[in-house]
């Protein structure tokens, strides 16, 4: 019976095209048209907004659908800072192909869509999550401006149509990479309670994200890039601590390097050393040097680290859980339910320290 349960469960996991027979087809068809119109406004009127001005909304009516976008100039400015051309963004999100429904073993109640080229996620959000991001958007943008290679997921736009809200973002740190070359994917929180996921059978197309306990006995082998990862994780987790956020995850995927990719690492490491040496000669330039790293020529140029044998795709996701009175009560209940065990609901300072400690312990 246990095996039959998992067999039926795995059949529901994966990526499915939202064609005309799919229940979400009417929604995604209207959404594609609305986003096409919204991004066209950004193309016709390039933003000059400063990081501190992130308020306001805009209606983008289409033939049978009205889409409201929030802080559109601020998000357009962020996309431009990432080197993302508006025409390319528009082509991915709008009319050229059908969206894909993404279903994993996540406990989230949100609906996830992928663009046809698998470059961007669209995720439904609650009003509380929308308000939280918009209220902290100036701080979020300043953090990304200061640390261009931050591990935080990039939110590239926010819109609402009828009862649903959709966020356009790079979402997955392995966007554009074939799933067959990513045999292992992990969602890491730095704790152990309920942190095991049943792996999919070998050869199964099911998209299963493993958890902390599945990583037992393994290490992230980075060599010279270990210091950078630990420092950046510390900076990002400190930022989330200031926002009183917890329960975020370090998303990690592993990709074997080809022989030619492994042989090219030596030259990259030498150039990185030269950049660091140059920065040492310039007062105050350390932070800039630490975030001007050589990254692989990939369709997703962020969050990529090469070790001796593996390429690691990393990113911090799920940034909307705030430590409020409900979470305090949940912490109290779990302290009674799981005495002496590590669970996810702890104060933001402890959560940040614990995740950093987990990565430091599991990284070579």
Automatic annotation (TrEMBL):
Entry annotated with the keyword Transferase: yes
Domain of life from the UniProt record: Eukaryota
GO molecular function, one term: 1-phosphatidylinositol-4-phosphate 5-kinase activity
Domain PIPK: 8-363
SUPFAM superfamilies: SAICAR synthase-like
Key words, A-Z: ATP-binding, Kinase, Nucleotide-binding, Transferase
Gene3D superfamilies per record: 2-Layer Sandwich, Phosphatidylinositol Phosphate Kinase II Beta
InterPro entries xrefs: PInositol-4-P-4/5-kinase_C_sf, PInositol-4-P-4/5-kinase_core, PInositol-4-P-5-kinase_N, PInositol-4/5-P-5/4-kinase
A single GO BP: phosphatidylinositol phosphate biosynthetic process
GO cellular component: plasma membrane
Signal peptide start-end: none
Protein name: PI5L1 protein
PANTHER family: PHOSPHATIDYLINOSITOL 4-PHOSPHATE 5-KINASE-LIKE PROTEIN 1, PHOSPHATIDYLINOSITOL-4-PHOSPHATE 5-KINASE
Annotated gene: Pip5kl1
PROSITE patterns assigned: PIPK
